Known about the structure:
By secondary structure, the protein is an all-alpha fold. It has helices spanning about 5-10, 15-20, 25-45, 55-85, 105-125, 135-155, 165-170, 175-180, 200-220, 225-230, 235-255, 270-290, 300-330.
Amino acid sequence: MSESDVVTRHPGVLNVYLRLMKLRVVLLLQVTAISCLIVHDLLIRSGVLTGLRPSFTDTILSSIVVVVGGTLAAGGSNALNMVWERDLDPLMERTRNRPLPAGQITPRHATVFGIVTAVLGTLIVSLPIRGEWAIAAGFWTAFSVLYYVLVYTIWLKRRTPQNIVIGGVAGATPPLIGWAAASATVPFSLDALLLGSSIPWVLATLIFLWTPPHFWALSLWSQSDYEASGIPMMPNVHGVGRTLTESKGYGVLLMLLPLGVLFASSDFILLVWVAIACWMGAWYLGSIISIPSTIQLGQRSPQALASFKRSLTYLGLMFFSIVIAAAATLFRI
């Protein structure tokens, strides 16, 4: 078998579908949704929040539905994103081997797959696992899909260096979806869209504020890629100095954000979590401050890469720790 045969061999339709969905990114989003769902159920069981007490079976079934439905919906969004950006992907080193530029699937095929997958995922998230259709969860799922595809991908990404900021709204919805799925125990009302607690909104805002410094750190590490594609990322348009200034601003807001949980409860264990979460925000902010403002365009900064990696650790710890805090409320003396 010649080398050219190996290079051009089709990886298989299933493999192409999975690559279109960008499962590694999607699964991180589902972790935040499931964390919020579990926090809701634990706080109801412990009496910190009021509501219909869920069984462990309810929690497990709802988690499965949210993971499966959320993965399909977000994966479909990613597929549609790749269809729209098939002219840009060949210009960047990290995206040039995606299925569309590699000729492994046609744009029409990928579009149909993306739409069907996103719609199916939205319907699954809405299933009446707890007695009522989870319409609020379905609404936030559909909102996320439409916002990501229409507002971020098609409208903003090529037009403004604030694309990541405004587009981050879509990535912030999984905690809302998880909480809405867990609270679907009564007939739907417009109030259900507000979710009845500040906790899911704090966690959604966490992702929203986390997104710009997270992606800007990556863009500082790979500025040349974005410059070659013409995508107006903050460092390429306004320079390193302004990028770092705005990143630090988001870092400060992240450090203060956990205080919003106090609007939901003054439970002692949650107060401890607030203190720890504020400290973790300061820890993440430190990595942003360490990025030198003297980085030159096209220069790879190890501090930027380190901040990017710490941002992932920070996000994971924030959601893991609030689940542990919510579980701890079950064992208060």
